[in-house]
Design a protein that fits this description.
The complex is a heterodimer. By secondary structure, chain A is of the alpha+beta class. Chain A is about 25% helix and about 25% strand. Chain A has an 8-stranded antiparallel beta sheet. In chain A, α8 packs antiparallel against α9. The radius of gyration of chain A is 21 Å and the shape is globular. Chain B is an alpha/beta fold. Chain B has one domain: Rossmann fold. Chain B has a 7-stranded parallel beta sheet, sandwiched between helices. The longest helix of chain B is centred in the middle third of the chain and has 29 residues. Classes of the chains: A alpha+beta, B alpha/beta. Chains A and B meet through β3 of A and α2 of B.
Chain lengths: ~425, ~250
């Protein structure tokens, strides 16, 4: 195999700690290393092998999912698992064991990783697969970049007939209706996901829209999708444009907006609605926002989610994009892997300071009591106690951390 | 489908440009100094273009190797449609000031080897009656400045030579394109603090190069605003210019 050393970032001088940095799309501090160094890995961006017959792709770890899609979609392949943005690197997808709308069928990203190379600060290179160095494989999948630098990755892709997605939209009026609707669609659709109206309370609590997608069958004669021109939010306004008033009206409008029950859309707007609005985070103003994504085990899910939604509605701090989905039983085996069976809810809140932190802390109470977990890739504030309860295998994981590696997140939750 | 010869293929701008052409199914013959890096890039381009990619590593300072190189590339590609000359170094200005040898070495790599290659390529294209020749010069070649006039002199020489070639060959259907990038964030400029609006990414330059080929442009500043910056800089009277710290 050709030598790929030229683009590998060099270690900083002792005693500085370092952390691999892909495309910086994690919401919180898992990709930051305050006071330490970042190993910029985007330069590792070459394809190494692609077999259009088997759909096995090997590439350097800094390649973006968008670059992979541009290569594989015209050849009839798709990522087995994709998160809600394509602007992340392969290495980042493994380090956070990202998940997508099809989790109930296919598990998380790590389930489709065949192999990768892990470069330790000692210079040791470990070829990791489920059979070889399997313990390192399990530690590095959702290892938050702490076990070493991933230099290249080999993944299994899935076959598609064309770039189109068949979408079905349904409204639901309550959480119970969601559960029934979702169960019906999950059996037939790989990509069911719901949007919840977070501003609704009382009778309307838990209402929302159910969206189910599947790759379109062959024989569709639509012309290839046009490349859409991205818009950019030019600057961060002094105050957040996402606030009580706008959230309330947006949610109401979004819920009631008439939409076709069935349609055909390109994979881009279906999977990556925000990738076409560059720097969208600026909409939240200079103080930014917090993400909160939790997963609640099946038995406790219904009650816990009702409680979470009620607490959010009572706080008056609505979330513009609240996304609800059921995780299936398939897991990647990653020691710190976030996806686990249950219902997962993702929310974002404009940063109003202590008020917002208090709300998120109170949501943590519910999540902890229900035996759930919060997603580190989207977190910037969970307490060490919460983290250790959500991820009991952290003590086992700790043994695999590279002695020269650390992150702001890791020091925050274990320090 | 185009048959492309890329000289200096491991340079960041050349690699980004090759990727953009690869998406249109171009075929490549790559030339660069580092065999291992070249092999990784060749493999990457094979996957992106779906075409086999040929490459060879060569020290381009050896001018006597140039005719053989072009012959091999021509053979492998079955005729060169488009040649991109992108190799170069950023010499240390202070070191050059103290050493005639270093200055001449910088001129040799950045100007003479380019002149050798463009001359040979121009004659091949002229004989066949078609071809596109692109070379990467620099805004630094527009006016001599104390901070990098050795590099600037070499790039200025290329710019003038290409201008002459364009004048000579335009009636014969041969396209000669001069690319003048400003500050680009590449390994060549690793020593600089890369902040501010003037710094561009290699892919921005690549996009401009592809557009220049598609639109049949002659001389392109990349990004576009350098045309106006350099217009001002070129027109400052020398009496004043010599006193500026540039």
């Amino acid at each position: 195999m050709p030598c790929r050393d030229a683009q590998i970032p060099t270690l900083p001088a002792e005693p500085q700690f370092c952390l691999p940095f892909g495309n910086g799309r994690s919401y919180g501090d898992v990709c930051l290393n305050n006071g330490g160094a970042l190993l910029l890995a985007r330069g590792l961006d070459r394809f190494i092998a692609f077999d259009p017959a088997t759909g096995i792709l090997r590439a350097e770890a800094g390649v973006l999912l968008s670059e992979i899609l541009a290569l594989i979609v015209p050849q009839g392949w798709f990522l087995s698992v994709t998160p809600g943005t394509q602007m992340i690197t392969l290495g980042g997808a493994i380090a956070n064991d990202v998940h997508g709308k099809n989790h109930h069928w296919t598990g998380s990203f790590g389930c489709h990783v065949r192999a990768f190379e892990l470069l330790r600060s000692t210079g040791e290179r470990l070829l990791c697969t489920l059979a070889q160095n399997a313990d390192w494989f399990r530690a590095t999948v959702d290892g938050l970049g702490l076990t070493g630098l991933i230099t290249w990755v080999e993944i299994q892709l899935q076959r598609i007939a064309n770039p189109w997605i068949v979408v079905e939209n349904r409204r639901f009026a309550s959480l119970d209706e969601f559960l029934a609707l979702n169960a019906e669609y999950e059996a037939r659709y790989p990509y069911p996901v719901s949007w919840i109206d977070c501003a609704a309370r009382g009778q309307a609590l838990g209402r929302g829209l159910h969206l189910a997608g599947m790759h379109a069958p062959p024989g569709l004669m639509k012309p290839p999708p046009q490349e859409r021109r991205a818009l950019t939010v030019p600057f961060a306004p002094p105050i957040s444009l996402v606030n009580n008033l706008s959230v309330c009206w947006f949610n109401r409008l979004y819920y009631h907006l008439p939409r076709p029950a069935r349609g055909l859309t390109s994979y881009q707007p279906f999977f990556y609605p925000l990738d076409n609005l560059l720097e969208w985070n600026r909409l939240y103003g200079r103080r930014g926002f917090f993400q909160y994504q939790c997963v609640i085990p099946p038995a406790a899910a219904r009650e816990a989610l009702r409680e979470i939604l009620a607490r959010i509605a009572a706080s008056g701090q609505g979330s513009m994009l609240a996304v609800l989905k059921r995780f299936g039983d398939k897991t990647s085996g990653g020691l710190l892997s976030f996806p686990r069976p249950g219902l997962t809810l993702a929310l974002d809140f404009p940063n109003l300071g202590q008020k917002t932190l208090d709300l998120l802390g109170s949501l943590d109470e519910v999540t902890r009591q229900a035996g759930g977990a919060v997603y580190p890739a989207k977190d910037a504030r969970m307490s060490g106690d919460s983290f250790r309860q959500y991820f009991p295998q952290w003590t086992e994981f700790r043994r695999y951390i590279d002695s020269r590696f650390s992150s702001s997140f890791w020091r925050r939750v274990t320090g | 489908m185009r048959n492309m010869l890329i000289i200096g293929a491991t340079s960041a701008i050349a690699e980004a440009t090759a990727r953009r052409f690869a998406a249109t199914g171009a075929r490549f013959y790559l030339v660069g100094r580092h065999a291992e890096r070249l092999a990784a890039i060749a493999r990457d381009l094979e996957i992106r273009s779906g075409q086999p990619v040929a490459s060879e590593s060569l020290d381009l300072d050896q001018l006597d190797q140039h005719p053989g190189l072009l012959e091999r590339a021509d053979q492998a590609l079955g005729g060169i449609d488009l040649a991109l000359i992108a190799h170069g170094t950023l010499p240390d200005q202070n070191g050059c000031q103290q050493s005639v040898q270093k200055t001449l070495a910088a001129i040799h790599t950045n100007a003479l080897s380019v002149i050798s290659l463009t001359t040979l390529l121009a004659n091949r294209f002229e004989q066949r009656g078609r071809g596109t020749l692109i070379a990467i010069s620099s805004v630094a070649g527009d006016r001599g400045r104390q901070s990098n006039y050795v590099y600037g002199a070499a790039k200025g020489m290329i710019s003038l030579l290409l201008q002459g070639l364009r004048n000579r060959l335009s009636s014969k259907g041969i396209q000669v394109i001069t690319i003048k990038p400003g500050f680009v964030d590449t390994p060549m400029t690793a020593a600089f603090e890369k902040k501010g609006l003037l710094w561009a990414q290699p892919d921005q330059i690549a996009k401009g190069i592809v557009a220049a080929v598609e639109r049949g442009r002659d001389e392109v500043y990349l990004p576009w605003f350098w045309r106006w910056i350099m217009l001002v800089i070129r027109h400052i009277p020398e009496r004043l210019f010599k006193r500026l710290q540039l």
